[in-house]
Specification:
647 residues; alpha/beta; Chitobiase, domain 2; TIM Barrel; eight-stranded parallel barrel; six-stranded mixed β-sheet; 24 helices; 38% helix
Length: 647
Amino acid sequence: MARSERQVRCLPLPLRVYESGGRSHAESEPEIAWLGHADSRVQRYFDNQFARSRIGPITVAIGEVDSNPPQLGNDESYELVVGAVQIELSANTTWGALRGLATLYQLEELQELDRVWRIADEPRFAWRGLLIDVARHFIPLANLREVIDGLAVLKMNTLHLHLSDDQGFRFESHTFPHLASADSYSKSQLQELIAYAADRGVRVVPELDVPGHVTSWLIGYPQWGFGGGEPSNKFGVHKACLDVTDEDVFAALQALFSELVEVFPEQYVHFGGDEVNPAHWQQASSVQTFMQVQSLASPRDLQNHFNERLCTVIRSLGREPMGWDEILHRAMPRCAVQNWRGATTRDRARAEGVDTVVSAGFYLDLFYPSETHYAYDPELSQPKLVELENSMRTDVRFRHVAAGMAWTDQWREGQIELHADEAVLGRVLGGEACLFGELVDVDTLPIRLWSRLPAIAERLWTAADLCDVETLYRRLPDVLDFTEFRWASVQTRGFEQAGLKSELASLTVWFEPVKWYARLLGETALQARLQGSEMPQARPYDATTPLNRVVDFLEPESLIARDLVTASASQMQQYAAIWAGVAVQGWPQDLGPAAQALAEVGVLLAQYFVDDSGKQALEARLLDLYGPHGDYVVAAVPPILEWLRRA
């Protein structure tokens, strides 16, 4: 079987594709003809995805029917034949059959069933995940089910629920009834969600974040920490942490995690471990005495001591522990690590012999374009990953946050070169996109999530050598038009509520939100961070700030602006005329400066077509006009600069 020159438009791309001409078939009701044992889970997914289809009968053969919840490492391979007469799907397992149906669904949605296809496919990585932060802004179950539907279409197999943080605790504990926030999930609701996800081949990984990020815990149980009891809506690292020297705290954690695993059948349990502020530990005499007795020289040693005990608890419950890469330590316990702090913590974890899930490069809340995420391969060498990070700082699109990106160089402290025998290294299990919720609520979720997740889904499923960014962008618009991902109505309603006049709405395609953490931090806190004194500074957002402005409903990446690079001179002149005619009045107040900058871009570009002698000065001025303008940048500027260089 060979890869066809005529590339299928699915996303992610299948591993091996053979296309052999056109086909015609009489449309009829969808129906499965089973070869061997019927699979009720596959039947339910088929009925759901093809309920309004006229795809006709398909033959399905599954080697092993699995009624258990999905687990890491399930065989997800399949073979799909769209023949001249009939469609045949074969797979070793239930999970492979589900992935084959997802491909068939895409073929129908993309109107590709007029061709004869033979597809043999399997994923590159076992862990292909998405983190949804439900702690900072609560996401109702109905919306999480919609997320799972989209994950299944993209052949992603893991939903990581960040259930607790300083701002909220979303797991309803019977043992500790004062833990859960007003908006939370009952055990029965979570079990229903897990079953719904399992029917689509999606694992649900729970996270309760300890020993930091526990302000919400201490509202009902202040005795577990060092005072507190006051709710917090603020974002950023808090001082609240557990008293990890208190045996009552460990007894509570034993009981709480026991409840958690009763609900979640998933093999891995995430315990967080990130961004712990050690101030209380350093100030409490009882903690200092404990550290002396235990020969613990630093807060990091104390946290590792805590991690060891908690991992023992989790393993005693029959589960595998997992934490963020702050848990890295020379004497760390055996547990999986989720890499998020840049390129180098992955290899530091692997050198300790522990498995990693790569999230650095896959943060959807940073408003990066798809191609940025697409470039980050979980198995790329560390020097190449560092090179990618460095190159972003010289990219025009990130010029306004380059200094902040350079601040993250501190994450490279302790970086190592891997030279050890591969047999002793931890594995790269795969990758996970992260959508933390400071600037995401139930209304803005679809726009923030689906605009770029398909690119990450392809990077985690498809072979490493199938990595052509231009073909990605050719396929992306059609896939984003699937019912599962479409957000036009959400955006229209959001723009209206933000006070954007309908006649101006079409011009928003030329704007994007600012990148990295610039919007979340604000200028004051960003500058303070660069100087090492961020936390006393107020941020412009907290958990009560309404997310109801144009920027909240704006796509993180303008696909139409990206296409300007290949525009003809006459097309660019037409765009320049449109931009020059943009009214500088009538916009919502926060968007007005960006609109004024766009108008100036149009005027300058129109002048260039009359007299191109001042090209260098034009480029310099366009660079200034890119922004930021409050929370916005003019997305048209970077591709115009590239167009000018090519011209």
